[in-house]
Write a structure and sequence with these properties.
With 140 residues, the protein is an all-alpha fold. It is 46% helix and 0% strand.
Length: 140
C-alpha cells in the first residue's frame, strides 16, 4: 500500500464563499434598486455593468479561476471588458433611430384614424371561392 499523501490546493472555504454570497446578494439588491429609477439611456449600461460584475465574481470564485493560472482569470475579465466595449458601439446611434410607439399607448389626439376598410371587424366577410365550372365532355 502506498502511504503517499496528496495535497490539494485550498480553494476558498466557507468564509470566502459566504463573502461571495453576500457580495452577489448586495449586487442583486442594487440591481433591483436601480430598476426602480429612470436613468434614461443609462438604464441598460447600469444593468449590464452590475450583471458583468456578478458574472465575474461567479467565474472567479465558483469556477475556481482565481486559484487557477492567472492568465485564465485575466481572459475572463478581459472577455467581459471587450463585451462591454462592443455593446457600447451599439448605443452610438441611439439618437438616430426612429422612435416607434408601442401599441398599448393611447391614440394621439391629432392622429388620422385608420379607414374602416382596414378594420376586419367593420368590413364584410370575403366571399368563398366558387368551384370552376366543369369543362364540357367531348363525345367520340
Amino acid at each position: 500500500m502506498s502511504t503517499e499523501t496528496h495535497t490539494h490546493a485550498h480553494h476558498g472555504g466557507p468564509r470566502i464563499y459566504t463573502a461571495n454570497l453576500f457580495a452577489l446578494l448586495f449586487l442583486t439588491i442594487i440591481t433591483v434598486a436601480a430598476a426602480s429609477f429612470n436613468f434614461g439611456a443609462a438604464n441598460v449600461v447600469i444593468a449590464l455593468a452590475i450583471a458583468s460584475v456578478k458574472a465575474i465574481l461567479v467565474g472567479l470564485f465558483f469556477m475556481h479561476l482565481i486559484w487557477d493560472k492567472p492568465v485564465n482569470a485575466i481572459i475572463l475579465v478581459a472577455a467581459f471588458l471587450f463585451l462591454g466595449v462592443f455593446v457600447m458601439f451599439d448605443f452610438l446611434d441611439v439618437d438616430s433611430r426612429v422612435n416607434f410607439q408601442p401599441r398599448n399607448l393611447a391614440p394621439m389626439e391629432n392622429a388620422t384614424p385608420a379607414p374602416d376598410s382596414m378594420n376586419p371587424l367593420k368590413t364584410a366577410a370575403p366571399k368563398p371561392l366558387e368551384p370552376a365550372p366543369a369543362a364540357p365532355e367531348e363525345h367520340k
